[in-house]
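Example for tutorial group B:
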């Protein structure tokens, strides 16, 4: 759940916008889902019109106007709470509970032990990018004339959002959105550029696929360039032969400007130091990598031609499918608390699906969804000091083969067998999450397998029946777990508040004035 905060001076303008048609008529059925008891007593969940919007704005502004309190930078506090489009929709009742808990924790209500401030939560359908969300409008002037403190309100909102994600079974995002989530407005910005999805998502899959399929850094650079993406090195200060990082961008249309992302901002495990732990570190490999980085920076042709330019031997399909099968067997003995190993396996398996998606999906499809879902398990808060390298069975060979798959067609029997083995590994990751009582992640992987990869399996040819043990492993459906829901609850009195000036006032640092519009 992503909170996005703005401040301003025009409460009537904000409420009129939230209750109106929106910039592109994207607002549908604007209505209240929660708010201060005195406001909810007079307004139900009927669709808001101009008169109702004006009355609500006047009530939100009443404490400031009656008591004559002014706040530098504006007294209007506006926060949107949005879900990723892939998470689906919540009910009005659940949004009401989330909004009430959020405002309790942010200190706007009586739960803070101080006089409450007036607020409402408005829902008006999806954003243009398909995100379910609500908007909270609040006065920063409390009913007794004291001021609500906006100091560090954005990190406070992030922390509260993380806690509510756990409480309500929502997808848990990184506090900085640098690991899995998108920054506020990023999805809408990519839609305006005509991209089928945010560039951060497509670039993450391309980089992950190329990193897993490559046997060294030079090959990694060449593979990224073959996907059509732009890549440039970040040199050490004062050097042009020591690369310490990289950035990638999708190639923009003619006349457009590329949007660059650092590797670590795509995902924590895609930072260059993390990627280098998977490749052999030799003087020759380092020299070849620098030459390829310099060629990429200048837009020149690759210095050498490697494995990426040739079709792999078809006979390797069976070899690498068997290797993935052995990987699944080895996972039976991996402890649940060995997070580094599970993250490593999820990363390689995600890379295999990302390679397949990059090769065969012109727009994000089921394979892309599988890569994105498994990549979540690949993220760790802390990575081991001694990195894990693939010394036994691995999914890296599967990435190499799937990256050479062709666009279109019904696929091959070899791909169907490979999919079966990758599904077994995905199920092992699911079982690990379930046994660790991480039911939210288990539920997400289950949904991905049953609703995304089932489409891929249906499009592939039938294959001979596998051995009984493997057959039961592949045939067992990944079960879903339903998240409990809490009932709505009333809070506080429904009587209009009595506005009385407090004897003492507290001051807060003023924030910059920003438009009271949906971000």
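The residue assignment follows.
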């Amino acid at each position: 759940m992503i909170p996005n905060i703005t401040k301003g001076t025009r409460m009537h303008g904000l409420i009129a916008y939230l209750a109106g048609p929106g910039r592109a008529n994207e607002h549908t059925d604007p209505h209240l889902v929660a708010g201060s008891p005195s406001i909810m007593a007079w307004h139900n969940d009927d669709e808001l019109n101009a008169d109702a919007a004006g009355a609500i704005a006047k009530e939100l502004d009443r404490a400031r106007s009656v008591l004559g309190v002014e706040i530098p930078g504006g007294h209007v506090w506006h926060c949107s709470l949005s879900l990723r489009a892939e998470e689906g929709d919540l009910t009005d009742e659940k949004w009401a509970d989330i909004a009430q808990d959020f405002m309790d924790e942010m200190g706007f209500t009586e739960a803070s032990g101080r006089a409450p401030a007036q607020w409402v939560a408005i829902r008006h359908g999806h954003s243009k990018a398909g995100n379910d969300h609500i908007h909270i409008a609040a006065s920063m002037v409390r009913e007794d004339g004291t001021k609500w403190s906006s100091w560090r309100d954005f990190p406070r909102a992030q922390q509260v959002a993380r806690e509510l994600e756990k409480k309500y079974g929502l997808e848990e995002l990184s506090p900085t959105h640098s690991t899995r989530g998108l920054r506020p407005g990023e999805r809408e910005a990519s839609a305006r550029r005509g991209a089928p999805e945010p560039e951060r998502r497509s670039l993450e899959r391309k980089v992950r696929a190329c990193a897993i399929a490559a046997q060294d850094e030079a090959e990694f650079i060449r593979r990224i360039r073959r996907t059509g993406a732009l890549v440039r090195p970040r040199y050490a200060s004062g050097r042009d032969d020591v690369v310490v990082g990289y950035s990638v961008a999708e190639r923009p249309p003619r006349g457009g400007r590329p949007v660059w992302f650092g590797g670590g901002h795509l995902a924590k495990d895609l930072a260059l130091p993390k990627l280098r732990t998977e490749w052999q570190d030799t003087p020759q490999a380092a020299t070849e990598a620098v030459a390829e980085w310099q060629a990429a920076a200048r837009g020149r042709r690759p210095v050498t031609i490697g494995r990426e330019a040739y079709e792999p031997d078809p006979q390797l399909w069976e070899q690498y499918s068997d290797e993935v099968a052995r990987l699944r067997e080895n996972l039976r003995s991996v402890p649940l608390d060995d997070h580094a190993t599970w993250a490593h396996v999820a990363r390689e398996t995600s890379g295999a699906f990302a390679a397949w998606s990059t090769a065969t999906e012109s727009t994000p499809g089921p394979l892309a969804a599988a890569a994105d879902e498994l990549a979540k398990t690949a993220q760790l808060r802390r990575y081991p000091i001694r990195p894990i390298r693939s010394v036994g069975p691995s999914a890296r060979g599967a990435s190499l083969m799937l990256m050479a798959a062709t666009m279109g067609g019904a696929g091959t029997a070899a791909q169907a067998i490979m999919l079966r083995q990758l599904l077994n590994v995905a199920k092992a990751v699911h079982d690990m999450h379930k046994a660790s009582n991480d039911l939210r992640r288990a539920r997400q992987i289950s949904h991905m397998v049953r609703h995304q990869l089932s489409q891929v399996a249906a499009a592939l040819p039938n294959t001979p029946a596998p051995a009984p043990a493997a057959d039961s492993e592949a045939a067992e459906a990944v079960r879903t777990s339903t998240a409990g829901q809490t009932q709505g609850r009333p809070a506080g009195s429904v009587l209009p508040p009595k506005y009385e000036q407090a004897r003492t006032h507290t001051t807060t640092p003023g924030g910059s004035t920003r438009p009271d519009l949906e971000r």
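The first strand starts at residue 2 and ends at 8. Compare this with the pattern of hydrophobic and polar residues in the output above.
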